[in-house]
Amino acid sequence: MCRYNLIMIKDDSAEGLLKQEEYLKIYDDLQGYRVYQKGYCNCGSFVGSLTDKKGMNYRDALAICKKEKIERLYQIKNVMNQPGYKEEKENFLQMRTKLSDGLSIDSEYIGDYERQQTEAIDKKYSGDELNAQMKKLYQEISNLLAAQELQPEFQKKREEYNRFLHENEWMNESFGYFLTEEEEKEAFDPGIPLSELLGIKEEQNSEEVKIISIEKESSVIDEVIAMAEKDMSTDNLDEFKTYYGLFTNLLKEVESFRFGTIWSEPNEFKKIKTVGINRLIIDDLAFLEFDEMIDIKRKDDILK
Questions:
Q1: Which of helix, strand or coil describes residue 252?
Q2: Which of 87, 125, 202, 247 could serve as a FRET partner for 52 with CA atoms 20 to 30 Å apart?
Q3: Are strands 270-276 and 292-297 parallel, antiparallel or unpaired?
């Protein structure tokens, strides 16, 4: 599941501009709006990133978040430097897997049922009827999962799993990091054969196999800390400027639009503010809760 930042417009008058900016229409009619989103997801966005500091100004909230993040990273580093860390990590992983598998077993029959029904519906229906049947199936699966969560045995297992993670919080956090570049390289495949990416059979690939390296941010804990200690405001400000430029161009096409953020799927939207584009500030986006929307307009004589 991911965060998605949405642009919501009443008609298609700005669709050309949004497509040019690589936005895709993901809902044609959601609560009366056409809804657009860019990219695979927006989990790295500054939008909504400071909601736990709501009530503060942006600069102070960002400074506290930076301090908390760095302190957390140093705590993780301390755990990783403890004697016997590798052995404790392996023991933790085995227990976490065991507890997680116990939860998964309880859900297997629902997953099997969903796959069987999806295949049956796909063979029997098409078009609008296919969409309608799939919507009914999703609701049925949601009901089954909700009912399962109420079962005492499942709740007991989930509580045990959550308690285990809470008691081993820093060990669990440490799984995303490495002490050295060598450890990181060992953990990841250095590249993907070009023939595999392109679906070329081995006998077809007469030339020396080429490797495509997939760039990613470092997970070496010291390098992660160094990045966190840099000025976080620069990236946030750059993203805000990008949004501001897009919003300004949008308002050449429409009188107003809505901007908001959701987690995975939209719920009932709550409009929290109406603002003219010249009064929009970075705080307006950084403190947005999920399913909160801002009306952004050309003029500020209708501010609320």
A1: coil
A2: 247
A3: parallel
Look at residue 35 and give its three-state secondary structure. strand
- Which DSSP symbol is given to 57? -
Assess contact for 2 and 43: CB atoms under 8 A. Answer: yes
The strand pairing partners of 296, in sequence order, are: 257, 275
- What DSSP string describes 148-213? HHTSHHHHHHHHHHHHHHHHTHHHHHHTT-BSSHHHHHHHS-S-EEHHHHHT--GGG--SPPPEE-
List, for residues 92-121, the tens digit of each pLDDT value: 999 999 999 998 887 888 989 999 999 999
The answer to whether residues 196 and 219 touch, using CB atoms and an 8 Å cutoff, is: no
User: Coil, strand or helix: which one is 49?
Assistant: coil
Long-range contacts of 48-55 (CB under 8 A, 24+ apart): 48/3, 48/261, 48/285, 48/286, 48/287, 48/288, 48/289, 48/290, 49/236, 49/286, 50/286, 50/287, 51/287, 51/288, 51/289, 53/287, 54/287, 54/289
Q: What is the pLDDT at residue 82? A: 95
Look up residue 165 and give its DSSP letter: H
Tokens linked to 12: 């298609």
Classify 272 as helix, strand or coil. strand
The alpha carbon of residue 282 and the mean position of all alpha carbons in its chain are separated, in whole angstroms, by 20
CB atoms within 10 A of CB 198: 9
Whether the CB-CB separation of 39 and 5 falls below 8 Å is answered with: no
Q: Is beta strand 23-30 parallel, antiparallel or unpaired with respect to 33-38?
A: antiparallel
Q: How many residues does the chain have?
A: 304
The three-class DSSP label of residue 4 is strand
